[in-house]
């Protein structure tokens, strides 16, 4: 089995620390101002879950703490080598690895899958509205329904955030991580071993949520994968017993990186914006899901790529 590894991670982390000291570090993924930073996670979304990739000053400290403490007991955590012995009980993505250009690939055993809750999909992975990206899939539920763990593994995070509400992240022995958000009640604690099918919590609508549902994510090395690449949500089973993960699974990030905005100024019309950006009005309308007669207001952000 060929695994994606993060062998250069220590060097990268040290460089990032140095850059932070110089106040000149750059985020590997763009954070548009449509995505607000949060203290819990990278790559989590929008309407219910707005979080962006960020590397806070204390994050670097935490990473080093975690590497030091975890390396002393490296057999304790699932897929520990793949994750460069990083095990973090608060950050959804403490790894900060760019996978969209990786030449590596991985074959992951997904045969032991258990669907967290069988119900209809209310929101899919992908762009929402004109520019916001949803990094998970939403499954309808009733408050109090048990939400079950997808594979055997160990609970890495069980806590509350502004956006996810009560949520759980599990690292699995197959190398994937899964996220269960907007729970009403947590039934697990960090570092607890868990089997596929065991309840991680009760469904709910906590955090940034407009109604009871499960926000469900698959991640590899911290980066979301489209759940539809793995699971057939009609049969609630994996497409295959093995999942092949490579750069193609992360191509969507390039689409996110392409997005640019024009901020409407007083007196602007779509025609003015088309001239200034070089993008036809028809394309502006399509990208922003507006019409030629829609009213645009100063301060409004118009996507033009
Ligand atoms: Zn969601």
Q: What characteristic shape results from the CA principal axes? A: globular
Terminal residue distance: 39 Å
Largest sheet: 8 strands, antiparallel
> Which band does the percent of strand residues land in?
25-35%
Name the structural class. alpha+beta
Number of strands: 19
Bound molecules: zinc ion
Q: What is the name of the CATH architecture of the domain at 121-254?
A: Distorted Sandwich
CATH class of the domain at 121-254: Mainly Beta
Show unreliable segments: 12-72
For CATH, the homologous superfamily of the domain at 121-254 is named as Glucose Permease (Domain IIA)
Describe it for me?
With 305 residues, the protein is α+β, with helices and mostly antiparallel strands. Among the domains are: 121-254, Distorted Sandwich (Glucose Permease (Domain IIA)), CATH 2.70.70.10; 260-303, Membrane-bound Lytic Murein Transglycosylase D, Chain A (Roll), CATH 3.10.350.10. 17% of the residues lie in helices and 26% in strands. It contains five helices and 19 strands. Strands 2, 5, 7, 8, 9, 11, 13 and 14 form an eight-stranded antiparallel sheet that branches. Strands 6-12-10 form a three-stranded antiparallel sheet, with no helix packed on it. A two-stranded antiparallel ribbon has the order 1-17. Strand 7 and strand 8 form a beta hairpin. It is globular, with a radius of gyration of 20 Å. The structure holds zinc ion. Residues 48-49, 123, 134, 136, 138, 215 line the site of zinc ion.
């Amino acid at each position: 089995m060929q695994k994606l590894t993060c062998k250069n991670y220590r060097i990268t982390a040290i460089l990032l620390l140095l850059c932070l000291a110089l106040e000149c570090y750059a985020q590997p993924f763009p954070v548009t101002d449509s995505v607000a930073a949060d203290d819990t996670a990278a790559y989590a979304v929008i309407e219910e879950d707005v979080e962006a990739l960020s590397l806070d000053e204390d994050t670097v400290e935490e990473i080093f703490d975690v590497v030091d403490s975890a390396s002393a007991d490296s057999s304790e955590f699932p897929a520990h080598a793949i994750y460069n012995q990083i095990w973090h009980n608060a950050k959804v993505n403490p790894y900060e690895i760019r996978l969209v250009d990786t030449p590596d690939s991985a074959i992951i055993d997904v045969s032991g899958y258990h669907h967290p809750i069988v119900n209809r999909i209310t929101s899919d992975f992908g762009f929402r509205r004109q520019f916001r990206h949803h990094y998970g899939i939403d499954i309808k539920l009733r408050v109090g329904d048990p939400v079950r763990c997808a594979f055997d593994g160990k609970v890495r995070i069980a806590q509350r955030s502004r956006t996810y509400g009560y949520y759980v992240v599990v690292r699995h022995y197959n190398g994937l991580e899964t996220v269960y958000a907007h729970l009403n009640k947590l039934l697990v604690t960090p570092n607890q071993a868990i089997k596929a099918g065991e309840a991680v919590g009760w469904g709910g609508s906590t955090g940034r949520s407009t109604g009871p549902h499960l926000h469900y994510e698959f991640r590899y090395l911290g980066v979301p994968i489209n759940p539809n690449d793995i699971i057939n949500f009609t049969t609630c089973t994996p497409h295959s017993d093995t999942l092949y993960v490579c750069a193609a699974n992360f191509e969507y990030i390039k689409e996110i990186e392409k997005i640019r905005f024009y901020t409407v100024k007083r007196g602007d019309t779509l025609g003015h914006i088309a001239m200034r950006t070089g993008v036809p009005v028809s394309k502006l309308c399509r990208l922003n899901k507006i019409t030629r007669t829609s009213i645009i207001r100063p301060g409004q952000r118009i996507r033009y790529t």
